[in-house]
From TrEMBL:
Residues at which Zn(2+) binds: C27, C222, H247, E251
Domain tRNA synthetases class I catalytic residue range list: 15-326
Protein known as: Cysteine--tRNA ligase
Residues holding ATP: K282
Short motif ('HIGH' region): ranges: 29-39
Native organism: Candidatus Amesbacteria bacterium RIFOXYD1_FULL_47_9
Gene: cysS
This protein's GO CC annotations: cytosol
């Protein structure tokens, strides 16, 4: 298989350090709020890579951290050690302890993770449970001469690490772009390893250290925990493109300066998800969570399908109509597999040589696509081509189920019941009647549908059909 490596800026042949074992790390969520569908585009990328590596016979030790301290309100593009702690800020706003906030949003995160059928990582270490590992790592850096003190914390001296920033183009590093920088920093690119608690007032999350009471910087947790669970050198590190400029260069610098060994072989970065062509943000109210989509009647599998339609290195634009189209496509696939499964197993005729060769061709092309830097849009194109071919339904469904080990679309096993053709037609008829202003007749159709166990919900993108709870 081949994958784009941000270090070399090229698609490279994937050669693990210790095949067939692979160590992989994804920068996980900061658990001060609900994760949004942009975050999940990145976690899906991790899941797809994991599934493709598995399909290639590798055995993956997959680590994803939970950031529950130290991620400050300065943005990820160089200001991450300025501002307030996101956890403590959320705790104040929600009037509960920072630990309760972390626990609550971690649970919500895992529920969404399962809804989207993401394979759970082998370990999900928390920053607050690895304070001593972080302190030990900073001590190593201090022994090696990379650490200096300012009034608000201990900093990494990037000038002493000549290879600093090899992952990002230096112009991208925007230290101090948004908030006041610490003027005692020797260089704007230097970053906090340990921050001191404020002189007045106490933090809820703080620990003793050789340098004074405080808390770890945001970057150090990823180095400490990835190396604890995966070793000082490992294969894959993944995150979204914003982390390529600062967080990941910082991880590399502090890890390699401590161990004097190469930290990670392949750096994989996913492009951002946009909403209606722009950035997602709380102030615009478009930072949708997975459950927001469910409330509008969409299935998480529709969202999962939507992510597959755009290559991970291109930005993807989320719109409600794109989601509706993705869900229709998923419905079709799922309905097809369920239909084939429900048919009595007829005595299967042997596939003719010609059809066998054809099917083999589709399988090869699908594999080639996904093994070539995760070209899932191409894989989907091969899939639809296969479905339109003259191969018998049974073999089509069989092939789809094999591919679904990698797509993760829960085909044929989703607990969502496919909508029967008859009910779909009734819904279309009702729409048509409503368009013509015949609301009484439209309502009669609705009542008929409900008798059959289905309801229609009018959403912002049109009517959606849902199974009535408690009906067989
Ligand atoms: P955070 O919880 O803010 O630390 O972000 C968690 C992960 O989601 C990080 O890898 C971010 O880079 C990534 N991320 C944030 N916003 C987006 C977005 N709009 N699209 C894709 N990934 C994102
Ligand atoms: Zn990280």
């Amino acid at each position: 298989m081949r994958i784009y490596n941000s270090l070399s800026r090229q698609v490279e042949e994937f050669v693990p350090l210790f095949a067939p074992k692979i160590g992989m790390y994804t920068c996980g969520p900061t658990v001060y709020r609900y994760a949004h569908i942009g975050n999940f585009r990145t976690y899906i990328l991790g899941d797809l890579l994991l599934r493709v590596m598995r399909a290639n016979g590798y055995d993956i030790n997959y680590v994803m951290n939970i950031t529950d301290v130290g991620h400050l309100t300065g943005d990820n593009l160089g200001d991450a050690d300025a501002g307030d702690d996101r956890m403590e800020e959320a705790a104040k706003k929600e009037r509960r302890s920072a630990y309760d906030v972390a626990k609550f949003y971690t649970q919500q995160f895992l529920a969404d993770f399962d809804r989207l059928n993401l394979i759970r990582p082998t370990v999900m270490p928390k920053a607050t449970e690895h304070i001593s590992e972080q302190i030990t790592l900073i001590q190593k850096l201090e022994t090696n001469g990379f650490v200096y003190r300012t009034s608000d914390g201990m900093y990494f001296d990037t000038a002493k690490w000549p290879r600093y920033g090899e992952l990002s183009t230096l112009g991208e590093i925007q230290a101090g772009a948004r908030v006041e920088v610490n003027r005692q920093k020797k260089n704007p690119k230097d970053f906090a390893l340990w921050k001191f608690s404020p002189a007045v007032g106490r933090r809820e999350m703080e620990w003793d250290s050789p340098w004074g009471i405080g808390f770890p910087g945001w970057h150090i947790e990823c180095s400490a925990m990835s190396m604890k669970y995966l070793g000082e050198s490992f294969d894959v590190h993944l995150g979204a493109e914003d982390l390529r400029s600062t967080h990941h260069p910082n991880e590399i610098a502090q890890s390699e300066a401590a161990t004097r060994k190469p930290f990670v072989k392949y750096w994989v970065h996913g492009a951002f998800l946009l909403v209606d062509g722009g950035r997602m943000s709380k102030s615009l109210g478009n930072n949708y969570a997975v459950t927001d989509l469910a409330e509008k009647g969409f299935s998480p599998m529709g969202l999962r399908y939507l992510y597959l339609t755009v290559h991970y290195r291109s930005q993807q634009n989320f719109t409600w109509s794109a989601l509706a189209a993705a869900e229709t496509a998923w419905d079709k696939l799922n309905g097809f597999v369920q239909e084939v499964k429900s048919k009595k197993q007829e005595a299967r005729s042997q596939l003719s040589r010609e059809k066998l060769r054809k099917l083999d061709g589709y399988r090869k092309r699908f594999e080639q696509a996904i093994n070539d830097d995760l070209q899932f849009p191409q894989g989907l194109a091969v899939m639809w081509e296969m479905l339109k071919s003259n191969i018998p339904d049974y073999d089509k469904a069989d092939t789809l189920l094999d591919w679904d080990q990698i797509l993760g679309l829960k085909l044929g096993i989703s607990d969502e019941v496919p909508v029967p053709q008859e009910v779909r037609e009734m819904a279309a008829q009702r729409e048509e009647l409503r368009r013509k202003g015949k609301f009484v007749e439209a309502d009669e159709v609705r009542v008929k549908m409900e008798k059959l166990g289905w309801k229609v919900e009018d959403t912002i993108i049109g009517a959606k059909i849902k199974k009535l709870i408690g009906r067989g």
